[in-house]
Amino acid sequence: ISFTARVTAPSGAASGVADTVTILAQGAQEGETATAVLHSTVRLRLTLEPSYRTVDGTQKYSGQGKSVFYAHTLTNSWSTADSVTLSAASSPAGWTQRFYTDPDGDGSPADGSLIGGPLDLPANGGSVDLILEVVIPSGLTLPLTHVSAVTATGSASAPSVTAEVRVSVVATFEDPGRAV
Asked: What is the pTM of this model?
């Protein structure tokens, strides 16, 4: 005997809610029993998580006129494939932001390519590693904190997901007459 158990989460169930179903089968002739336990967890259709990976750590430190890079993982937890569009809103405005693929998931943009359109994510946990590049403009008044609101929007009717990246630019001082 084989069967399929279908678990449907109630409308409006919060993300992270877990349910456990125990199935007990008992044979009529020999009195044998078998038990199976199914665990289901309600997940968001799309998740966009920072991955905190960098090859050597240098891509997260930079200065005016240069770039910083932030790795993320985008995952589709739904039972159907999805085409996802990425966007980034800048505050203050005027900072250049670009997305790159990260084929080996190491957080380095060196082996990636510029993302110019929607990303196709397979169903049931299909994911892609990507990198957000934030270009720090020259001539800033310091100190300053820039916020990038990164949004992933699926083609289905699910809500978008957003991650926030903060870039802090601070003033530095160097005294050429003093050696440390």
From this structure: 0.70
